Amino acid sequence: MSPERPSIAELRGAVTDLPPSAMAHLRLGTALLKTGAMKEAERELRAALALDPKCAGAWVNLGGILIARWEFAASVAANRRAAAAEPNLAIAHYNEAIGHLHLGEAAAAVDCLTKVVELEPKNAPAYYHLGVALQANGQTAESRLCVAYAIELGYQPSKEALQELERAAAETTTGSQDDAACSSQPSCTPSTSSKEKHNGTAQGR
């Protein structure tokens, strides 16, 4: 039986202990984030980073808050800091890719998601979004393979998202001039659920 998680009150108490602890602020920030207390969570995560600029978990969770506010470039930067601190932290590369997709930066998203599937070969959402990024990059055949594999792994994209991908693929196949615009506009990227935008972190839970 797993031990009970500390309450937010207990976590608040821990951040007052001396010496100051980045991990204590990360744990409190993560718990607050899960309750939806975004502003207070951000304050605690930034406190963690002030104590330890290489606290990957704090960077990832801060990136989640930023992307929820549509601050995509800032989210990309935060997740990039997380990945620099812990290169094998797949969620950092994944969340960075989601930010790149919203910014219309397909090639950068492909790079990030390729790293994710190297680290987690059964990550169905990563394969799906890699398919999205590849299609935005004009690589229709590769995109279809990734989307098919994501579905095989259990990912369930919406009907609308699949139709949007097929429209983009048709434009690429016919050589439509519109595909260049699609690859540079967030509206051409199938919607991403809130949960997928900021999946939290492997740390600080």
Describe the structure.
This protein is an all-alpha fold and 205 residues long. The chain has a domain at 92-197: Alpha Horseshoe (Serine Threonine Protein Phosphatase 5, Tetratricopeptide repeat), CATH 1.25.40.10. It is built from twelve helices and no strands. α7 (106-119) runs antiparallel to α8 (124-136). The longest helix has 15 residues, at 159-173. The chain is elongated and about 65 Å long. The two termini are 17 Å apart. Mean pLDDT is 86; it is low at 176-198.
- Shape descriptor reads elongated
Strand content: under 5%
Q: Would you count the extended β strands for me?
A: 0
Mean pLDDT over the residues:
86
Biggest β-sheet: count, sense, barrel? none
User: Low-confidence parts, pLDDT < 50 over ≥5 residues?
Assistant: 176-198
Helix-strand pattern, N to C? HHHHHHHHHHHH
The third-level CATH topology of the domain at 92-197 is Serine Threonine Protein Phosphatase 5, Tetratricopeptide repeat
User: Helical amount among residues, as a percent range?
Assistant: 55-70%
The CATH superfamily name of the domain at 92-197 is Tetratricopeptide repeat domain
Distance between the termini: 17 Å
- Structural class category: mainly alpha
Going by CATH, the architecture of the domain at 92-197 would be: Alpha Horseshoe
- CATH class call of the domain at 92-197: Mainly Alpha
Counting DSSP H or I runs of 4 or more residues, the number of helices is 12
- CA radius of gyration: 18 Å
